[in-house]
Amino acid sequence: MVCDHASPPIFLTIFPLVHYINFGDIYSFSEISNYIDKQFDDVLAEESRIKRNPRFTDNRVHALLYFIVATSHGLREQDVEFMKLMSTKVNIIPVISKSDTLTIDELELNKKIIMEDIKYYNIPIYNFLGDSEGSEGDEEYTELNSYLQETLPFAIIGASEILDVGGQKVQARRFPWGIVDVNDNKYSDVSALREVLTRTHLSDLKDNTHFVLYENYRTDKLSKDLPGSVSATPNLDAETSKSHQFQPYPMPRMPSATGTIPGTDSDSGTTSLLAREEHLRAEEEKLRQIEVKVQNEIAQKRRELLAREQELKDLENKLKNDPDALKYTSSFRSETA
């Protein structure tokens, strides 16, 4: 699906994460994870080409809207599992679906509990405050980011039709007791979310995808492809098929001020990573040298061919202007034979 009114156009892909059956939910995280990985792999393969494809389309996912069911009990186990899995691949923006079924007090309660769970389980969703670090002096933008961060998760109401309200056309949902304008900030965060995705934070979402998420994926992917490396890709289907009995998630160890993680061999890990990066740079330099050499050889052959064609043209003109030269050439060939 493409949002035509947006510039540049925004593509929307919808994944039905939950399928309801008789005795519960079936969760297929691997399908979505593999889809996002494939977009990264396509870009990585294009970057590795000696000659780039000018028509290549970058289909990386820059934002993932995760719809949370408001239960007044916070996040469910599958919510935590899925967002933790996807947080290293894509910018996650949590939203509350069908928020029109909640009262204002219930909506505020669910937002509060959901954000507390996200903080407790250390789920790295998209951080609007992080976008304010490079905007010193722009108080309006800083205030906007603070407002958006406090608004999370966004409350979403689906519009079923466009109605005439007070002489204005509005996107609204009709109920027996009245209508709800989905763009009314008192009840819905649709307008704020729309601005985030199409205008105010579109560039930052793309930058964070390319410079942070993709670079981390690229480094990990290339390091695993080196000789002697061991692949540690988890079996997503095996992980998600475990018992759904809820288990508290342990808080991960955070890096210290020096950037190292307690309890890990940081020196050897850093040295190994630097060595791999150096090896990759050397291989890229070799490829560039080969490409330059091939281009020089092609250019040399082209020059030789043009020179040969020019000689033939000169000889042809000479024969046209001096017929005796042809006789002399034929006589010379007969004597030689």
TrEMBL record:
Keyword annotations of the record: Coiled coil, GTP-binding, Nucleotide-binding
Entry protein name: Septin-type G domain-containing protein
Annotated localization: Bud neck
Coiled-coil portions: 280-322
Organism of provenance: Geotrichum candidum (Oospora lactis)
Keyword match Nucleotide-binding: yes
Residue ranges annotated for the Septin-type G domain, each copy included: 1-224
Listed GO CC annotations: cell cortex; cellular bud neck; septin cytoskeleton
Disordered, as annotated region: 225-250
Major subcellular site: other
Domain of life: Eukaryota
Example of a GO MF term: GTP binding
PANTHER family: SEPTIN
Gene3D superfamilies per record: P-loop containing nucleotide triphosphate hydrolases
Family stated for the protein in its record: Belongs to the TRAFAC class TrmE-Era-EngA-EngB-Septin-like GTPase superfamily. Septin GTPase family.
